[in-house]
Automatic annotation (TrEMBL):
<protein>
    <recommendedName>
        <fullName>Coenzyme Q (Ubiquinone) biosynthesis protein Coq4</fullName>
    </recommendedName>
</protein>
Amino acid sequence: MRDYLIEKLYECSKKPYQKYFKKNEPWDINKTHLMSYPEESLGFGLGSFLYKNHFDIQEKLEDHDIIHVLTNTGVSVYEEIGMQYYLLGNGKKSLYLFMVIATGTIFYPKRMSYFIQQFKRGKKANAFHYLDFSKMLFMPIQTIQQTFNI
């Protein structure tokens, strides 16, 4: 029930967030095209992630799925919250991030040790949350992970 409630909150907040807070341009790419990138590349990894999870690219939110790929984070509700803890540890600060963390902490108090672990992982990594990943799609995932200690 709480997973359903959190997912509904996300769905209700996604469109206003995309429209009013995300100032970046949408990437002009689709998941089929991503599968034509070299197998070890970030682009191919993103395409594989999208197909595996039956997702489509969400305009202006492409970076979110890239973070999943780079940090190897799952897509369950508590893992999504954990990823926001990771990003907080990595230095990202946004109203949306704080809302997800606050809501997630209230709804998933028994996952606090996981959230703290994710925060520490993010803190240990070199800051990368601000990068323009659209220009890195041909780079090997492993190179990016090693460079930023992800």
